[in-house]
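Appendix B: complex inputs.
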Amino acid sequence: MPKQHNMPEQLFKIRHSLAHIMAQAVTERYPDARPTIGPPVENGFYYDFAVPQPFTPEDLAAFEQRMKEIIQKGVVFQRKEVSAEEARRLFAGNPFKLELIEGLVSGAGDDMGESEEETPDSQSAAGNSQSVISIYTHDTFTDLCRGPHVASTREINPQAFKLTASSGAYWRGDEHNPMLQRIYGVAFETPQELQHYLQQVEEAKKRDHRKLGRELEIFFFDDEIGPGLPLWQPNGAAIIEELEKLAKEIELKHGYKRVRTPHVTKEDLFLRSGHLPYYAESMYPPMELDDGVKYYIKPMNCPMHHKIFGSKPRSYRDLPIRLAEYGTCYRYEKSGELFGLMRVRSMQMNDAHIYCAEEQFEQEFMDVIAMYLEYFNLFGIDKYVMRLSTHSRKGLGKKYVDNESLWLKTEDMVRRAMQKHNVPYVEQADEAAFYGPKIDVQIWSAIGREFTLATNQVDFAVPARFDLKFTNREGKEETPLCIHRAPLSTHERMIGFLIEHYGGAFPVWLAPIQAVLIPIADRHIEYCQQVAQRLAEIGLRTEVDDGNDRMQNKIRKAQGQKIPYMLVAGDKERDAGAVAVRLRTGEDLKAMPVEQFIARVQPIITERKADL
RNA sequence: GCCGAUGUAGCUCAAUGGCAGAGCAAUCGAUUUGUAAUCGAUAGGUUACGGGUUCAACUCCCGUCGUCGGCUCCA
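Resulting structure:
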């Protein structure tokens, strides 16, 4: 996603000006530091510096203090337009600024670090010759900048910002470029808004799936097993089972057939698919057998499914053919990219491949979109963005299959299908798969990191590499299109997301433990076990808390585990064949016969309702 | 992979070069309780791992591994 600057004008100016003030503080303390770019961003701002030594936490505290002093002086920001020569002279000691100036001169970009839209054809030369170079000066500091800025630092509340972090960042976001040091700040108009934001961040940390996953005993990582390789505890496995059950039901309804494929395969398969050598760095290294044949652990399932499609002659009458598998894949993600369950090295994908004729494409593609919406509606997921990810011309032959007309054609197919069915989406160039455009569903983790949850991809290239064919109406051989889709993402990312989405309080059908039986005294344990047995008969995941705690503490523990139903049983309930039902919301439904509880719960589970 | 921070009991955290501790969890005992913490006792550690400095290292230094915050990348 590009950085969106849809914040109010004044806030934009405050944040942008704070970035300049920070640059002043930094260059005062470290005259060797070379400021590069420093834009406002969501919730604040950052500035990247080229420095000989990375900043320390003490540096940040000192910068923040100095910034407050500068703000309190009430200095003004002054804009001045300069010629290219003057700009070059002013920033002669700063190669990064000089690069920016050359960019401005050639009309390629600005000091916000944003590249202009990649539309070389439509781009007239108009902006180039007359691009304005402006500088802003406040106090002792002058920066190359488009602006706008506050008129005076009196518009900035010195108590309404905070420097939060420093980290490395590559110049212009390219890992082949030198690494700069970035300082992040958060900033608002008032101290109250800052406090509110900081509190929100604290609240979000409580929903973090890494924290909840441990507390709720859903999954964990172990040093001896390896980074990015989660172990699913019984609670996590219960969630997985439910998701697979859901997927199988829905996919059956949508005409999918289930297949199973091996986890390892000869190198030849991935050479054929084109993943090797291109994708090799994201794959676990091969194992070489005695005869010198290399085998890889699969990073995706598609080539295997292609083989199944190609295993016999296909007629147009057979299409579309939809092959589904919860395939287990392994990807050697770079160590620094791992992130709890959201980014792992072993994963189980809600994968399927749909082979269809071109005239069937729209219906198949939209059926997948409908499936997404069906799932999202079920989970109550509404904070997502559907993104049409398209190719870029400069990536043709490198990141993307080199066939521009097919790209344009398939992108248009997707675009028209989405528009015709009124599904909102945004478009993002240069994010496509190497074999075709796709609809990605973007979501955000509790701490605000963006991920692709589900994906729906067009593949106009790989079926041909596998010589996939069907016989069309005219008796001629034709290559099918392939749709790769994963509406439920991978178990790992989906469950990571769902933990945060529900804050650990899963709907009953997904809850790892659906009801806990709480005996009031030891003499009620046996009765509780009988009830638990009965509940197990209808498929409820139940436990009896026969521990030595008092009932109150058992409730507290169940509450902490976010178990939907707490079923309390004492003398009265035992004698009446009843349980006293307490919901995790705190609501007390009082005693009811066990069969009445079952009658309440069963439809909630089978219909996968959100309520308790 | 890169930059930085960080790693103490299952979990959350103390101990700033001088005997490694607390709360929760666990185990045992007592209690038998009516809707968010009953009481007591016990056990739990080669302070991530490997080197080094020092009379003495959880503490200082170096390396490895993991984790966290970013960058890059992605289901």
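Chain A has three domains: 9-189, 215-502, 515-606.
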